[in-house]
Amino acid sequence: MTTHLESEEHKALRSAVAALGRRYGRDYLTRAVAEGKPLSELWSEAGKLGYLGVNLPEEHGGGGGGITELSIVLEELGAAGSPLLMLVVSPAICGTVISRFGTEVQKETWLPGIADGTRLMAFGITEPDAGSNSHRIATTARKDGADWLLTGRKVFISGVDMADAVLIVGRTEDARTGRLKPCLFIVPTDAEGFHKNPIDMELNAAEKQFELVLDDVRLPADALVGDEDAGLLQLFAGLNPERIMTAAFAIGMGRYALSKAIEYARDRTVWKAPIGSHQAIAHPLAQAHIDLELARLMMQKAAHLYDAGDDIGAGEAANMAKYAAGEACVKAVDQAVHTLGGNGLTREFGLASLITAARVARIAPVSREMILNYVSHQTLGLPKSY
What pTM value is reported for the model? Predict the structure, then answer.
């Protein structure tokens, strides 16, 4: 499933990551979930091979590529049945924000470890009362001498138990206007006043979700990432890669489900013919394949625009890619389960757990309705409804 839009180098990366993914596969992920363990072995090996940091600067231990390359890594691991969700968070969001806006010390402290997999950073934006409205974030940072004191709550924060720190989106008071403005802080997970509580999910994933309570967490001045006055710009620099990588996650999952359905439709024989010879089975699978390919094209466009420095163009394309990939993934998983019939719900074939997992791409990191709001307002120029 390669495309003529990709260079030979990208095709080689895709092939190499696919081989790594096949060595681990769905069974590895299923075992880890059953045992309540993170995907540490795959994460560590992907780091040693240089795949986790392909988007980070070479001078800080990365591969010198961009989100284009990182999205290939996540898509291929997903297509092999063992996606690494924290690729969306640690190198794509946190690594990007630090490499673009961090101080030299922050870059030297974090980027080499993020790139080789020895350090991991989570990302905290979502709050119980703010949802998709980042303007309502209530986590606030106030000055105390040279230090910052951070207070607030976050929910649905992935992988905090594995993380060395969380990049927290908080707000500080603008001295001139008195209004609160967004700012990003690196918060070590062992900081005093930092509390994490696991959220009981019905989602079968190796990465756990957490609620965070920040109770006057004291941070040094250099915990602030970037300029205090450019918080929104810095925030969106991390959110566009997040959308592109969520699209890669969804496309990989859709491809995995589709591959299982195709294999089954070729082999399963009823009334003397493989079920895949019947158009009622074949056509929906062909449609699912087309939808995944179209979503990937938009993802590639978004990644290209982002890597070329076109943040505004990338914002539009990243939202569209995430929307298209989420829809394509849900349909592919649904059709795959349906193709297998009762077998689609057995543990042996392992597709049923994807029904819940596929919904994630429709819900997170932003709902499809908010993307439709964005496209209506930003792209089509229609009046805002909110």
Answer: 0.96
